[in-house]
Amino acid sequence: NTRIVKINGINPEKELIEEGAKFIRAGKLVAFPTETVYGLGANGLDEAAVEEIFIAKGRPQDNPLILHVSSLEEVKPLVKEISKEAEILMKEFWPGPLTLLFKKSTLVPMIITAGLDTVAIRMPNHPIAIELIKSSGVPIAAPSANTSGKPSPTSAEHVIEDLYGKIHMIMDGGTTGVGLESTVLDLTVETPIILRPGGITLEDLKEILPDVELDAAMIKDDNKLVPKSPGQKYRHYAPKADMFVFVGQVEDIVKAIKERAGQLIEEGKTVGIMATDETEHEYERGVIMSVGSRKNLGTIGQNLFNVIRRFDERKVDIILAEGVESFHIGTAIMNRLKKASGGKIIKV
Ligand code: TXA
Ligand code: MG
């Protein structure tokens, strides 16, 4: 039995926050919105509660979780030390979609870090998340609130699709803003490295950390590169349909997708076309959905996971998706498209 409550995203009702916090303190699972995607929360210091997260999601045990905090002071007991760089980044980008890796303290259970000696921490920029953490009085461990392998949830409906009946409470605070998971940055190594691109971009980070790098396995089409973050090695964000991503000049992408769609439809396939506001009118055949505007890539980030889920609902056999340029938030979008397609990127 899962309790679903609508909760105000700007001024969350105190009684509802307290109800969620009670569940968290009792070792139960509560899904809640953040500015990136919905999280599946449990008391991050309670090993048994954290184990329930892995069970509910069907998540591989070797994939570590992020601890969510509501203030800078809450970081100290969880880590061995806070470097100068970390301090500057926290001041600049928290609350916000940046997850930082630290050397873990003994307070952090091994199940959180999947046996690694680093712990991932972030402060979400969402009143419901912040109030829930505060009211719980503990760091909240929260992966995205989807079934493992599926696209991350950007609305309560997505969480219900995946986890209804498996968790105690879903806090429905509407759709999320960024729509893609946080940037994961490892500062515990010599050269700071982005393990997962997200809302805080490489370009944002370069202004503060000039030598920061992006893990090459995140964007290159070379499937032999092994990602440094455990979570990134799994097929992920994946639709049921077979997916292909087309990259190149926009006109060439449209032409190639139209051609391929035509062939596939002749073969009797149901074809989904993931288009953009600027191009959707150019397609004639297939299940056509726009994912957002090329002039505002943020809208594509926001809608991407929802559109993938909607294609699954329409039971398409194949999705032909337009790629975007790999800079700013486009890097995170292309990373998710690469994962969702299992690396099937077609250069035109
Ligand atoms: O935006 C987000 O980060 C969302 C919201 C709910 O906060 N959370 C989220 O969690 O995306 P999850 O568990 O779906 O993804 C966490 C990622 C995984 O790729 C995991 O492998 C990586 O962070 N990660 C966590 N701890 C790590 C560590 N110690 N070393 C390397 N990677 C780590
Ligand atoms: Mg996830």
Describe the protein in words.
There is one protein chain. With 348 residues, the protein is of the alpha/beta class. It has 2 domains: 3-228, DHBP synthase; 242-347, Rossmann fold. The chain is 30% helix and 19% strand. It has 10 helices and 16 strands. The strands form 2 sheets. The chain has an 11-stranded mixed beta sheet, with helices on both faces. A 5-stranded parallel beta sheet has the order 14-13-15-12-16, with helices on both faces. Helix 7 (202-206) links the parallel strand 10 (193-196) and strand 11. Helix 1 (14-25) packs across helix 5 (127-136) and helix 9 packs parallel to helix 10 (329-340). The N and C termini lie far apart (49 Å). The model has no long low-confidence stretch (mean pLDDT 95). Magnesium ion is lined by residues 143-144, 152.
CATH architecture of the largest domain: Alpha-Beta Complex
Over all CA atoms, what is the radius of gyration?
Answer: 20 Å
Distance between the termini: 49 Å
> Overall pLDDT, averaged?
95
Bound molecules: threonylcarbamoyladenylate, magnesium ion
